[in-house]
Specification:
Blueprint lengths: L12 H13 L2 E6 L5 H16 L3 E6 L31 E5 L11 H6 L2 E6 L10 E4 L6 H11 L6 H14 L10 H12 L4 H9 L4 H12 L2 E3 L6 E6 L1 H6 L10 H5 L7 E7 L5 E7 L5 H7 L3 E2 L3 E6 L3 H11 L1
Parallel strand pairs: 1-2, 1-3, 3-4, 4-5, 7-8
Antiparallel strand pairs: 6-7, 8-9, 9-11, 10-11
């Protein structure tokens, strides 16, 4: 049965007020974002962490990967001195805030800590989020989770300096695809203007995010494109490929280096749905899906234990590639 998706309504003022009350009265706050963090997840958490620490709060931030490592493309983000290994994370936080995690399982090993938190504030914009916190600041109409963090910091009357603004801007531009995706609203452009006014350098940020890659990426891209498949009769057209651990090892690339391959595959004119399966270091397949609009991939991925947005979603599979794709084809 497909999980119920949220209707996109804004967060009620009473919930914002409760979040301000909980955060203002806390001395120590534990922050977490989803595993294999992207720009929106890590940017949201680090922006909140820097602002809260500047306000005098004790802050511990982390994400629940067993191999704890910040993705290469995001190592320019300020605030990483806040990060602690999952093993050093508070086991039962008084107040825990999660960022950009659509379901508790996306917290990885920190899902256990979230389950023991006295108060759990969930900050997210995925329509597939069921609201797994004691307080849920979930707005599927927001262009990014960082947009909700900016709102939260404003309600807390916390200033946004250049470092915080850089974290917020990174989440905004990555989740809107540099303002190309359907999530790009007038509010998104207004938010970008505020952050640039606060000191963000859009050129430098874009170069670090999209215009930088090791030479090995070109080699692996060639191999992956060589095995791409197009199935015009499936779900309005399906294009897909996969990246193995051996592919990455042959070129000395970490897992996060191949995240952008989906943006190459999705350009295919003949396909509504694009899929890339990426084998992680533990042997699981992290499956990224994109849609041109004819298929709600959030619902598709929710059926397979994942989630996301109508045009961009994902899930994890421990089945072989062909078995995973057979399940996808059936749903399509």
């Amino acid at each position: 049965m497909t999980p119920e998706l949220r209707d996109g309504g804004p967060v009620p003022d009473l919930d914002w007020d409760r979040a301000v009350e909980l955060i203002s009265s806390a001395d120590e706050i534990a922050l977490a974002c989803h595993v294999s963090p992207d720009g929106d997840a890590l940017g949201s958490m680090l922006a909140a962490g820097r602002a809260l620490r500047a306000a005098g709060k004790r802050v511990a931030a982390s994400f629940g990967d067993r191999r704890f490592e910040v993705p290469r493309l995001l190592r320019f983000l300020p605030g990483q001195d806040l990060l602690v290994e999952p093993s050093d994370y508070p086991p039962a936080p008084e107040l825990m805030i999660t960022f950009d995690a659509a379901v508790a399982d996306r917290l990885g090993v920190l899902a256990v800590n979230a389950g023991k938190a006295r108060e759990l504030i969930v900050v997210d914009h995925h329509p597939s989020n069921p609201g797994f916190g004691t307080l849920n600041l979930v707005d599927p109409g927001a262009p990014s989770t960082t947009a909700l963090v900016e709102e939260l910091l404003g309600r807390l009357a916390l200033p946004i300096d250049e470092a915080v603004a850089t974290c917020l801007y990174t989440g905004l531009v990555t989740d809107t695809g540099s303002f190309r995706h359907a999530s790009t609203t007038p509010a998104a452009h207004l938010m970008a203007a505020r952050l640039v006014a606060a000191g963000v350098d859009p050129e430098q940020t874009s170069r670090r995010l999209w215009d930088s890659a090791p030479f090995g990426y070109l080699r692996i891209l060639g191999a992956v494109l060589g095995r791409v498949s197009l199935e015009p009769g499936v779900g309005g057209g399906l294009v897909w490929t996969f990246v193995t651990r051996d592919d990455r090892a042959a070129h000395g690339l970490p897992y996060d280096a191949v995240e952008g391959i989906i943006d190459v595959i999705r350009r295919t004119d003949e396909a509504d749905v694009a899929v890339v399966l990426k084998e992680d270091d533990d042997g699981a397949w992290q499956v990224s899906t994109r849609s041109r609009g004819g298929t709600d991939v959030a619902r598709l991925c929710a059926e397979l234990g994942g989630g996301g947005h109508a045009r961009a979603a994902g899930f994890t599979s421990r089945l072989p590639v062909e078995e995973t794709m057979a399940r996808l084809r059936t749903l399509l």
